[in-house]
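Data availability excerpt. The first of two example chains:
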Amino acid sequence: MRLVVFGGKWHAYERVDGQPKRTSLATKDREVAARRLIDLEQGRRRKATTVAEMWDVYLEERGPRLAGKETQRFA
């Protein structure tokens, strides 16, 4: 992502599936926009982890040692 000015305000610019995408950072101040861009990038890196996803990882790691993997998954 990079910073661009559009309509007098700073935006985060990126290409998603080959298409341009702008996200408003709602400021005219470049320094504030730079900090908001960092926050936006960090927020997108964090992936929400569900219990189901954690359980799948657990079964993959412990699966060979567990008896009845499908029973464990059902539980």
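And the second chain:
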Amino acid sequence: MQAQYLPQNMTLNHGEEVRYDVYFKWGILMPRAGEARITFSQSSLNGQPASLYRLIFHTTGIIETVYKMRDTLDCYYGANNELLHCSKRTQEGGFYLIDELAFSYSGETTSVHSFRYTPESTRIDTNLIVSSGHVFDMLGATFFMRTLGWENLTSGDSFPFTVAVGRDLIQTGYRYQNQAIVERGNIKYRTRYFFIDIYDDVFSQSKAAAEVWVGDDENHIPVKIRAKLKIGYAEVHYKSSNNLKKPLDCRVELKK
């Protein structure tokens, strides 16, 4: 399983919960579009102990009245942080879809069984093969970021990986830029700033298709994410958390 071993810089804590606000920006408008919650807990998979990394998203406000969305993404990890199984359950505008990815390893090769279905029919049932490097689903890619070591980072350092989606293998990578301050009201966050290169048609550009600001403390929590879409932007902002492994030292509250 060596291809999928992640750096052993485990910054996550079982019982952790992190909450986010999600916004969509069109022109001068930037309505709050939804809420997301990410948890990390002890679980089991096929009768064996596992860790469960879960994201739950739902729309809010005006977006909820126009196009209701409910998404649940699950990633199961083994004892060495190897990704074992992912699922995404999507309910959008009355349509329900399930994606499942099962991972297996042989030396440097990763095999992914991709199974997509609705309650009525099978949409995808195929195997994807990656000869080397890390392979995740979209949520697992954020877990990967939180395990990166920062001791010797320099601008331009890159961390490539592959994201499995349906029948596709999308080449992706984090590219470190520098340290940066993120302001949110009267609160500032000290962060590490990364570009995300995503080679997929849904994004308006491949290089720096998205950006992420990760809290510069021992938790490595993303505090802001911005994705450039074909129409406008999506932005995700850290809201609150509990049961973190370490104090959130990147957060600095300014006196009013």
